[in-house]
Amino acid sequence: MANLENGDLCDDGNPNTVNDVVTNCIRAGTLLDDDCEGVPGGPAQPGTACDDLSACTTNDLYDANCNCVGTVIDLTIDTLFGPTDVDTGMTVIYWVTPISGATGYVWSLTPSAPYLDWSTSDSDTTDATAILQIGADTIAASVCVYAVNDSCAGNEICLSFSTGLSAVGSSSDWFTIFPNPSNGTFQVSPAGPITSAIDIRIFDALGQLAAAPVVLTGSQPQRLDLHEKANGMYFLRATRGSESQMLELVIQR
After folding, report:
1. CB under 8 Å, gap of 24 or more: what pairs does 74-78 form?
2. Structure pTM?
3. Hey, how many other C-beta atoms are within 10 angstroms of the C-beta on 31?
4. CB-based contacts of 2: which residues, under 8 Å, 6+ apart?
5. Residues 6+ apart with CB under 8 A from 100
6. CA 136, CA 164: separation in Å to the nearest integer?
7. Which residues make beta-bridge pairs with 148?
8. CB-based burial of residue 223 (10 Å sphere; 0-12 exposed, 13-18 middle, 19+ buried)?
9. What is the full DSSP assignment across the chain?
10. What is the pLDDT of residues 8-30, one digit of tens each?
């Protein structure tokens, strides 16, 4: 204590104090506050990183009250895209907008195979797109999906769809198609006088409209121009009133 006076800096020998000064000839410091983990003067201060023990959050930080709080990973899916009216035997695509926080997506079907089935090996995929094979003659069904990040799951969203057409055929009693296969140009000729207009639409293997709709009336044939489309199988859906027929078209060059 020699040469030290009240107010002089000193070291009271206690690592849990700061600002040690001589007070009434006694070396004394100010006790450090405990940090968020109970350690006097420790590094776990508000605003520093921590672990809230939740796999569903990121950027965990101590708040002003020393609560460890993370930002919840947003796995919300707003919209499931895809057709709601599909045809027997077709392959269709359903998809969601990819979510930045997702590591995968879980897809499900109601009912499941053999009425409906994935063209992939299972219904779990890391892709935001699922390809579905329609296998029933007439069925009401739904496809559902939710996003995941490890053990965390987002909201499930579903889209209902229905099939109501007979199996795909190669001929129709309403009209004839020639040639089939063709190089991309088909002629549709009425089998007899048409008393009710027939709406004709062409779809590709993904269920997407492949050409502008054609309406067959009277006795005049109609030309279907698919010369810009790739080789492969396409589907012609003909609708007359409440009746529908589905036929295969093949482009082969």
Report:
1. 74/99, 74/101, 74/154, 75/99, 75/101, 75/102, 75/146, 75/147, 75/148, 75/149, 75/152, 75/153, 75/154, 75/155, 76/147, 76/154, 76/155, 77/145, 77/146, 77/147, 77/154, 77/155, 77/157, 78/157
2. 0.48
3. 12
4. none
5. none
6. 9
7. 104, 153
8. exposed
9. -TT--TT-B---S-TTEEEEEEETTEEEEEEPPB-TTS-BT-S--TTSB---S-TTEEEEEE-TTS-EEEEEP-------BS-SEE-TT-EEEEE----TT-SEEEEEEES-TTTEEESSSSSEESSSEEEEEE--SSEEEEEEEEEEETTEE---EEEEEEE--PPPBS--SSEEEESSSBSSEEEEEESS-EEEEEEEEEE-TTS-B-S--EEEEET--EEEE-TTSPSEEEEEEEEETTEEEEEEEEE--
10. 677 666 666 656 665 654 544 44
Nearest to 187 by CA among 236, 149, 245, 232: 236
CB atoms within 10 A of CB 230: 10
Residue carrying the six token digits 């053990």? 151
Decide if 143 contacts 109 (C-beta within 8 A).
Answer: yes
- Whose tokens are 């599909």? That residue is 86
Cα distance between residue 31 and residue 21, in whole Å:
12
Q: Which residues of the chain have pLDDT under 70?
A: 1-8, 11-32, 87-90, 111-127, 131-140, 162-171, 205-207
User: At which residue do the structure tokens 């769809």 appear?
Assistant: 161
